[in-house]
């Protein structure tokens, strides 16, 4: 199976329409689930697929503007487009903004099955409460911690996606984590 | 998992990894629509690029290769810009 960046390079080199479309489909199958996790935390669940379709249109309309040489650079580029498409939607439809309810997030995580993947009852309550408190006291922190720990973006990627310096985002995550820890310890 | 993780970090990471599995394994209809949107955008951009290439070759007085001699019409740019729901 080709890696993501092998597909990116194959797409760049392909000069015929049908095979290029097939490669677009393969790339979208890899990109969509990851980018969707970034989106579903920020908008009403019903809008996530709509935004994802718009994101894919932008990625494949502007594909040849991507000049990067690594998979990491490609992910960053895709996350920036995803962030912009999400922000566009929120600008003309403020009602779309609804942080994904904690309970549904956790239920979604549990929907994968009852085996080793199930979130324990204790973890579930802790996470729900911490995310809820963060949502009230520091919604920005809720998003950043989500992007760092759940979406899995590193400081470098977050800095580029949110147009901040590496140190600014590192310190921001550190402060948010301290706040989350305080909230979490307050539960104990 | 990072060995230096505190308990809350571990829980956040754990939830994230489970979410990723859930999103990957769920809603195939939604994923199909997203994949089709990608393919369609790729097709339209290909046609735009080939029209551009053909016009450049024509302007330079070059021979037009068979593969771009007859292209589908350009995708309607106005339709492309129209926001959904209008």
What does this structure look like?
The complex is a heterodimer of chains A (188) and B (86). Chain A contains nine helices and no strands. Chain A has 188 residues and is an all-alpha fold. Chain A has two domains: 93 residues, RNA polymerase sigma factor, region 2, helix turn helix motif (Rna Polymerase Sigma Factor, Chain: A, Orthogonal Bundle); 86 residues, Arc Repressor Mutant, subunit A. Chain B is mostly helical. Helix content of chain B is 70%, strand content 0%. Chain B has four helices and no strands. The radius of gyration of chain B is 23 Å and the shape is elongated. The mean pLDDT of chain B is 77.
Task: Compose a concise summary of this entry.
The complex is a heterodimer of chains A (about 190) and B (about 90). Chain A is mostly helical and about 190 residues long. Chain A has nine helices and no strands.
Which helices and strands occur, and which strands form pairs?
The complex is a heterodimer of chains A (188) and B (86).
Chain A: H1 4-13, H2 17-40, H3 45-61, H4 71-92, H5 102-110, H6 121-137, H7 139-151, H8 155-161, H9 166-187
Helix pairs in contact in A: 1-2, 2-3, 2-4, 2-7, 3-4, 4-8, 6-7, 6-9, 7-9, 8-9
Chain B: H1 7-25, H2 28-59, H3 66-69, H4 77-81
């Amino acid at each position: 199976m080709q890696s993501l960046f092998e597909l990116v390079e194959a797409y760049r080199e392909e000069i015929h329409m049908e095979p290029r479309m097939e490669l677009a489909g393969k790339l979208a199958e890899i990109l969509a689930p990851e980018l969707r996790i970034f989106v579903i935390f920020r908008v009403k669940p019903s809008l996530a697929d709509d935004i994802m379709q718009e994101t894919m249109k932008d990625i494949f309309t502007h594909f040849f503007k991507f000049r990067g040489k690594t998979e990491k650079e490609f992910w960053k580029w895709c996350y920036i487009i995803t962030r912009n498409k999400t922000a566009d939607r929120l600008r003309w439809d403020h009602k779309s903004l609804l942080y994904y309810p904690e309970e549904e997030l956790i239920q979604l995580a549990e929907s994968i099955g009852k085996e080793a993947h199930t979130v324990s009852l204790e973890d579930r309550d802790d996470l729900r409460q911490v995310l809820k408190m963060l949502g009230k006291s520091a919604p920005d922190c809720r998003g950043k911690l989500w992007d760092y720990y759940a979406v899995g973006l590193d400081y470098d990627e977050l800095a580029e996606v949110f147009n901040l310096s590496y140190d600014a985002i590192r310190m921001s995550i550190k402060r948010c984590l301290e706040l989350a820890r305080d909230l979490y310890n307050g539960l104990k | 998992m990072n060995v230096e993780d505190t308990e809350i970090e571990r829980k956040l990471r754990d939830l994230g990894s489970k979410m990723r599995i859930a999103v990957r394994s769920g809603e195939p209809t939604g994923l199909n629509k997203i994949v089709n949107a990608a393919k369609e955008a790729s097709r339209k951009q290909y046609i735009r690029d080939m029209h551009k290439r053909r016009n450049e070759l024509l302007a330079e007085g070059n021979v037009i290769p068979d593969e771009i001699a007859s292209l589908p019409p350009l995708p309607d740019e106005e339709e492309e810009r129209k926001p959904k729901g209008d």
